[in-house]
Amino acid sequence: MNLRKQNKKSWWRSFFDTWGPVSLTVLLYAGIRHFVAEARYIPSGSMLPGLKVNDRLIVEKISLRNRAPFRGEIVVFNSPYSFDKKLIADRKKQLPSEFKCSLITFPLISWIPTLRDRACDAYIKRVIAVGGDRLLINENGTLVLNDKSIDEPYVEYFCPKKDKFNLCRPITTIVPQGHIFVLGDNRANSWDSRFWPSGGFLPEKEIIGKATWRFWPISRFGKLD
Q1: Which residues are the active-site residues?
Q2: For the chain, percent helix, then strand, then coil, each to nearest 5?
Q3: Higher pLDDT residue, 16 or 214?
Q4: CA–CA separation, 177 vs 13, rounded Å?
Q5: What pLDDT does 66 receive?
Q6: Residue 206 contacts by C-beta under 8 Å, 6 or more apart in sequence?
Q7: Around Cβ 107, how many Cβ atoms within 10 Å?
Q8: Considering the chain, what is the average pLDDT of its residues?
Q9: What local confidence, expressed as pLDDT, does residue 108 receive?
Q10: Which of 189, 163, 154 is nearest to 45 (CA)?
Q11: CB-based contacts of 23: which residues, under 8 Å, 6+ apart?
């Protein structure tokens, strides 16, 4: 009996010595990723020219916990498929839980295509207007905010006025409190607040964090504007 207990203790000790550090590392990484900061990459050209496809960014999650986002900040947020009522109504299955999305988007696991759920995706856009703002977007994608024209040096790709399928159709709206209006810097090619079927306002609670630094490629390492 004593020998059996000793063997069992020895097995657990051996198991912990092998997998304990790995488990603690994973838990530490998951904790930092959830509460402090995480790395993200750019999958599309919606933020060109400033952010290019496959750029790697640091998204910090602390500063926006105690304040609302500012106009001009670049934010990462939960997919509209997880909060837009009309997009949710079109789903054929139940929304995934936050825990399931955490697993699906965990590095390595996220590369398994059969597990992907659009409701677990993250989007990156620029904050254009905040709660209470009066916003007008004209036919080429330029802005008038609270009756003042806004200079956007980060935007190069406005919508061509002669385009039959012009994405920058005029919009006039007032942003409700607790929400923001977001656009891609590539104004001619971005699925953003202009097109979400339930009105296009992003609830502040859906923001994951603020994109602060680009760490890859090294040649363009630096703080984001």
Answers
A1: 46, 125
A2: 30, 25, 45
A3: 214
A4: 55
A5: 86
A6: 77, 78, 82, 83
A7: 10
A8: 84
A9: 66
A10: 189
A11: none
